[in-house]
Specification:
The complex is a heterotrimer of chains A (about 290), B (about 110) and C (about 100). Chain B is mainly alpha-helical. Helix content of chain B is about 80%, strand content about 0%. Chain C contains no helices and seven strands. The radius of gyration of chain C is 15 Å and the shape is elongated. The chains are: A mainly alpha (about 290), B mainly alpha (about 110), C mainly beta (about 100).
Chain lengths: ~290, ~110, ~100
């Protein structure tokens, strides 16, 4: 597609969106209501896929049709994330140079707590994700931070997710206006169109779950973080939430933000909150 | 509403077409290139402050620089103007999405 | 060092079903790295499963097999508690072998 037609297409798409907005009824109240949001969010997906149980949504594309489900069952017999998980267990128990270990940075020694992340840190006034907490733990103990995208970070979060398997997401929004604002920022990010392809997260994961984008079947947004981190066949390896956010951005031709930018932290906060009650299933495998 | 929208699509795309056409006719000098590149960079920087840059903008800017480095200021200026148009579109997207996002929200 | 081979062999009386997951980069030699240079080929060339001294499954692989290959097959016979030996050799001459008990 040459540039002129690409721009015209883009502008037409934008204008159509603006038109749709103009024709819609008045906007919802300005104060966010996360409880109502989560209820509506879950209802939207359970209505759309009446044959699925709430916990099935954590398997993403694999719950979207019979064939995919069969593939998932086979894959679970010998999951490709096994190597990452083993590495994670090893890394997690290895002490830092100063003698301390990751267990010292987390409640319950870091075991069975993944479902509480992200949380809103009222002292800092910001959302803290598990990945962020892990690197902060390293830095607090004199170790260099590691990449947020794969390798050791994916291995560590794989192990921590594994110790929380089956536990329902339990994200809290404290009665702090900044927490509500972070939640709201995350929600806005999720629905905002970006990139030259003019997609929002919702374009694929709310409007088209179960449909194909090129050769891939799209996952529903409900429960989409429950299986993280994942061994993605397309990547030929493990990837974290940060990796997925940044690559999703570049796939729609938007320059990705820095991993663990405020926007991504808030996005993870929103997506996790609206999936409260769904079980952690990580680490996972995806096509 | 529809008339206004259609008019705005037309006026914006004609503006782009016209600017594109003009660039094709005049031969560009190094000065022309530098001006076009600076304008594109400035627009992309503004898109960056809105946290909404496009990968294609960066790629087109790189193409512009590569062409100019080889001395092809016609191609360089054309690419720079493309990059500016892309950057401006990404600014438009960020600004209009400030309200438009609500249309997609689940209620 | 931990084995690169994970294996599970289950006997159903008549047949034994085997699943194996092998950790290996399986670089085809056609992919470039971030610097634009070709990553040299590094892949398993031969994979063998042996039961009772005989090969029950052999694979001659090339660059088309993806990273961390997963294999699933069944063979006639195989008794619970008996050994299944798995070994691979790659194009660089490296190898690994492991033995698993049929469940």
């Amino acid at each position: 597609m040459n540039l002129r037609s690409a721009i015209q297409f883009g502008l037409a798409a934008l204008a159509l969106t603006a038109f749709a907005f103009g024709a819609a009824p008045s906007i919802a109240a300005d104060t966010p209501d996360p409880v109502a949001d989560a209820k509506a969010f879950q209802k939207y997906f359970t209505d759309r896929f009446p044959k699925l149980k709430l916990e099935d949504f954590v398997n993403g594309p694999y719950s979207m049709n019979e064939d995919m489900h069969r593939q998932w069952e086979e894959k679970e017999q010998f999951p490709p994330y096994d190597f990452g998980l083993d590495l994670g267990k090893e890394l997690f128990s290895k002490p830092f140079k100063n003698g301390k270990s990751y267990a010292d940075c987390f409640a319950n020694g870091g075991i069975g707590i993944r479902q509480n992340y992200p949380y809103f840190d009222e002292k800092e006034g910001k959302v803290v994700t598990l990945e962020l907490a892990l690197n902060r733990c390293r830095e607090a103990n004199g170790e260099a931070p590691i990449s947020y995208l794969k390798d050791d970070m994916a291995a560590l979060t794989a192990y921590m997710a594994f110790t929380s398997r089956g536990k329902p997401f339990d994200i809290k929004i404290p009665a702090d206006p900044r927490a509500l604002e972070a939640y709201d920022n995350g929600k806005r990010y999720f629905y905002t169109r970006r990139g030259q392809l003019n997609f929002s997260c919702a374009s694929c994961h709310v409007q088209n779950p179960g449909e194909r984008i090129r050769a891939e079947i799209l996952a529903p947004a409900l429960g989409i973080l429950n299986a993280m981190p994942i061994y993605r066949s397309e990547w030929g390896g493990m990837g974290t939430i940060s990796r997925r956010f940044t690559t999703c951005n570049s796939q729609i031709r938007g320059v990705p933000l820095e991993p663990q930018s405020d926007e991504y932290r808030d996005l993870e906060y929103y997506l996790s909150y609206v999936s409260n009650g769904l079980p952690i299933s990580g680490p996972g495998a995806r096509p | 509403m529809r008339k206004v929208v259609r008019a705005s699509i037309l006026s914006l795309s004609s503006a782009l077409l016209i600017s594109g056409a003009t660039a094709a006719f005049a031969a560009s000098s190094e000065t022309d290139f530098k001006a076009a590149y600076a304008a594109a960079e400035a627009a992309n920087k503004e898109a960056g402050s809105l946290r909404n840059q496009w990968t294609t903008t960066a790629a087109t800017l790189a193409d512009a620089k590569k062409a100019a480095d080889k001395g092809d200021f016609d191609a360089g200026t054309a690419s720079a103007k493309e990059a500016e148009a892309l950057a401006k579109a990404s600014i438009y997207q960020a600004t209009s999405e400030k309200d438009a996002w609500k249309a997609l929200e689940i209620h | 060092m931990a084995s690169t081979i994970r294996v599970r062999a289950t006997s159903s009386g008549e047949n034994t079903e085997v699943q194996a997951l092998i950790q290996h980069p399986m670089d085809s030699g056609y992919v470039k790295d971030a610097k634009g240079e070709l990553i040299p080929p590094h892949f398993i060339q031969q994979l063998t499963f042996e039961y009772d001294g005989k090969a029950v499954f052999t694979a001659d692989w090339g660059p088309a097999v993806s990273k961390d290959p997963y294999v699933k097959f069944a063979f006639k016979g195989g008794k619970k508690g008996e050994d299944l030996k798995i070994s691979w050799v790659d194009n660089k001459g490296a190898s690994d072998t492991t033995t698993a008990k049929i469940q």
